[in-house]
Fold this sequence. Notes:
This protein has 17 helices and 3 strands.
Amino acid sequence: MHPIVRFQVWLSDVRSVRWRDAILTLRERFREDRLALTAGSLTFTTTIALVPFLTVALAVFTAFPIFSHFQDVLQKWLITSLVPDTIARQVMGYLTQFASRSSRLGTVGLVLLVASALALIFTIDRTLNAIWRVRARRALGQRLLIYWAAITLGPVLLGASLSVMSYAFTASRGVVAGSGAGNWLGWFLGLLEFLLGAGGMAALFHYVPNTFVRWGHAWMGGIFVAAGLELARKILAIYLVKVPTYSLVYGAFATVPILLIWIYTVWVLVLLGATLTAYLPSLIGGIPRRRSGYGWHFSLALDVLRALHLAAQTPQRGLTLVGMCAQLQADAQRVEPVIEALQALDWAAKLDENQAPDTGARFVLLIDPTQTRLDPLIHALLLPRTVATEKLWKNGRWAADTLADVL
């Protein structure tokens, strides 16, 4: 598809998003998925992994002296763009100092540092896959290869991009000096930096979840995060100037709580951006929000089984996930766990037909509802059979009911 056509489709998707439902969905998922606690956990892990990450990056820059200029540009960009100015220089100074001393740790110490960096990577991987309701993980070796490449090559590519931008800005100063175009050039380069941050977030949302995520949806989430970070950075800077509480109470130690607050804010915005990206298909399609309550898995499973049973009578013999979500008026994040439960019961199966990711494979029904008892589904999704519920199970007549009785 031509890039202009892709952009037009993307703008159409942006206009199609039900933004009121998007805000309500973000609030609901933030509460039900406990994203505040997850952001706190990621804040702690990030604090531990900051020095290991910087150590690996500095090791790459040190091993290849040609990248030394990239390192300087990258550090300046981190100071001016990602961290509030009030704490940026102190934080980067401390991190660089700690990272430079890490070479004295020896082999065991460096292995532990790398393990700390990978621990953060795996935590991010697990968190994002949980937001997309993905349970099947990539192989450990594949994840290690991908994320190690991201840790080592990411800083180099980012530094190279920033160096090109810095060179273009420096070279153009003589052309625009006195012409009044300097402000426009600065604004343009600022926009490029914003798009660079949004693109990084988009790549995170596209590649990390072990499921298909459209680039257009990932870019919406990336722009949401980048805009939120820019706004949060300005608000935090204004607060620290107008209300210097932390400096008065903590003194020279004030950098630490401010940094923790900032890291927590960043992770909250990233998790909200990931949630927005995950639910964009249903928001664009106008699928109404379906409230969660006790037993909703069981109720949705009956809807899925009914849809698959009806589809079995058609020439297609099954339904894709997209078609099922549209028919049931439910989002994929709620339907996928139910389908996985049905697959675990051997009641449904996914056909491997080498379909394109955006088309999706078909799901088919494997059972005859008239010959299948209902109690395995009740046990799996509604009321597990335990010692506490044994009498309820004996007094109930579920063992005599078949799936056809409820469909």
